[in-house]
Amino acid sequence: MRLTNLLPGGRRRRERDLERELRYHLERRADELRADGLTEAEARRQATIEFGGIAQAQEEVRAVWKGQWIDTIARDVRYAARGLARRRGFTVAAVVSLALGIGATTAIFSLTDQLILRRLPVAQPDRLVQLAWMGNSLSASWGGGHLMSYPLCRELQAQATLFDGVFCRSPGTVNLSTGGEREPVRGEFVSGSYFSVLGVTPQIGRLIDRSDDTELGASPVVVLSHGYWKNQLGGTPNVIGRKVLIDHYPMTVIGVAPATFVGVDPLAPPALWIPATMVEQTSALERGWNRALDRRTAWLHVFARLAPNARLAEVKPPLQVWFRRMLEEDTRQADFPQVTAERREAFLASSIDVMPAGRGVSNLRLLLNQPLRVLMGGTLVLLLLASLNVGGLLLARGAARSGELATRMAMGASRRQLAGQLLVESTLLTAAGGALGVLVAPVLSTTVLSYLTYADDIGVSLDARALLFALLTTGIAAALCGLAPMFQMRRVSLQALLKQQSRSATAGGGLTLRKALVVAQMALTLVLLVSGGLFVQTLARLHANVGFDAGNLVVFSLAPPSLGYSEQRSEQTMRNVLRRVTEMPGVSSAAVANTLMLSGGWSTRPLTIQSDARVVSERPVPFMRVTPGFFSALGARVKTGRDFDSRDVRAAGTEPRPWRTAIVNESFARRYFGGRNPVGYRIGVGDQPDVVANIEIIGMVSDFSRRSLRDTEIEQVFFPYWDRDADDGAFYVRVRGTTESTFAAIRAAVREVDAELTVGSLRMYREQIDRAAWTERALATLASGFAVIALVLSVVGVYGLMSFIVTQRRREIGLRLALGSTRAGAVRLILWDAVLMVAIGVAIALPSVWALRRLVETQLFGVSALDVPTLVGPAVALALVALLAALGPALRAALANPTEALRLE
Amino acid sequence: MPSAKFPIPQGTLDMLILRIVSLEPRHGYGIAQRLQQLSRDTVQVNQGSLYPALHRLEEKAWLRAEWRESETGREAKFYSLTAAGRKQLEVEKESWNRLSRAVQLIFADG
Predict the structure, then answer these.
(1) Chain B positions touching chain A (beta carbons under 8 Å)
(2) Has residue A497 got a pLDDT over 60?
């Protein structure tokens, strides 16, 4: 194959040569004719006529080049395919490793592309921005991300000159009943401007509009998502006007959104949209929540659409001016909280930020972003490794085939033709690998996604962009695999090949190159080993950070109010279930708390602490309400003072009462009491000057993780559960016996109390921990998997190379042995090569880890990216494994009979 | 100098080129002249069609080409036979001989 045809330069040279060739012909003929007596002009004319169409001849020659080129490729492909089919083992190994590499990178790419990078499927998503309060808003938050209050959102909507519309939204789970079963579904509470600003038109019926955004509680309407309408309601048009129950509140279906629109969180598509004015009729934020109109309650994401021609930077200054004035006015309002001058300053120093939001907002995306980057890096390294390995194998084959190549060169094949054939071979291999990779990519992306998150309603597909990416990676892999053999071919001389062929040795031209490849593999493998080690350690440290022995702890949650029970009846149900469960055989202790720990959320309150002086907590303190015995059920230790007991249990049937006792954890004592014993001091809830600190601290417990496993040094306070709001929560049961029987017994006990009640989240606490460490576990598993594959690949690489070297140096070693060298000396001689390669590989890898540490650091916990044992351990392990792989061939060489080795000549 | 001389089939032209080049390396113009001399002017080669044939044979690796100084002192592209080309020439000569013997036999009988 004429590779030069592919290059514009080569093509030009051919054309020039052809022109020169024809010109020579014509000039020679003209010379003759002139010698016969013709004039210069006549001679030229005659020669041209005799030639018979120069342009036509050129065209025909070009057709020959082109046709021949295609023929040659076809021939090379057939030849390469036959060759590959003959060496099935080699071919399968190469194709499978390339398929894994290409498949994995494509899978991670499609995840990144579709979950992280994709824009919202709405009109002109690039014009969408999110408005965010930067600084201290003195507000309580309900949700995550940049939140604002409903009144503030209304005021922003009035800024018509700055934007082409402003809307706000809040995600929340509601219980939906369309007639039969009640089921929890994802909902989105939206302002009346939501659909119009996003530019969405209804599939059927109408969408929520400004008429639904007038008065709190006045618009009991819902819009269904296309997916829910089709899948759950059969897509009937008569759904319009249908009455549904949202958390027991009757509302009317007014329309269905189009299939393309799935809200502003692409990773959490809602089943329905509800006017923000109806949020207090649901339990989405919290049951009985009634602060929708409160200026100090932030629960909405605020978005805006930039006016046509307006640039983001131009909008900020006027918006800032407006925002400043709003802050000033707010502080003069009667309901502005009484705070210290310091906090008032902080409030006034707040600013409003305008951020591009064409991709919407998503908590899950924030969670996936970093792990996916890490995985993309890992898979790319793996692909590089696989390509290098295949390149190395091709080089080895090239060396083994040098005899064949030499013969063919002697037969007249040009060096370029042979190099072309090698390239065709590597292209065939990678094309097969790429095709197989595209087949496995969807499986891989689904698997990786299920590892990274337990959200099961998002998925990715292999779209055109992913296919293009796969094509691109395949091309790069083909180039990587093919370059080495081509490079080797360039330096092969016919004589050398033929001469070597006559001896037992084979071409040595690629040896340095092969050594370089193995060194690169070593370095890449070490990088993967180190990152695998870091993630495994992170997982271990997270497990150690639970703070107590989770061994035999079972948890489950109950929510009697969801059955429509009154507070009194709900509380009685909770009391009955706790008594039943405590009496169960095999239960050593049981307790109730208001929430399930490690679920990612918590409630916080500012506190006033009366120690030697009266101080206000530096930041809101996470609190939890627990029953007596909670700490012993967990296995957390009460360090000083006492646990809650019967004195802290309000008698059934009596009125709820304010908290009178509290227990704090060690971090709390350290932060606010300087490590002194806090027992006996008093605290109050709130940070206003009029707060009375009358809640007595009766005990101090050890620290344990509450919101997430990454909790460290977080101060916490515990109040008695039964004092008030004791109508739902989570049970913590320390058991003896097997999981299955315990779960069945718990279900039976709850059923005995109330057959209607559903037991939620019934699981071992260990499983709760696993869920909390879901992403970290995924990274640890995947990264270790990558590292193991990489290790196997480089062992194969080292072994192959050392075998080759040993074969090549057999005669030299035979000679040394014959001259009195020891066998140990011979082994050392061979191993020295391997030691050198490992050393260089390590020397390259360690700075790379240092350079890459930013990529992984945010995912780590309790271990630094430059942790010395984690760096040294894998380096030593890699060196040992590589030396073991080299030892086999070395021993083979040393144990060979010197006479035989010499006779090989 | 076009005339009604015997036109030459393409396969035959290839064989003649191989034959001429097998004696010594020649450039395109030399091959054209030699063709006319050898056939004693009985065959007419369209000179324009000579070059596509030369390039085709080169692509098939039966000919190899290199630029070197010609008898006039100018650089010309010289074609010579490769090993594969030599083998091909033998094959062609053999099949040609068989064909012409067969044709002669047929005419002798007729």
Answers:
(1) 1-2, 27-29, 32, 46-49, 51-52, 55-56, 59-61, 64, 67, 70, 72, 74-77, 82-85
(2) no
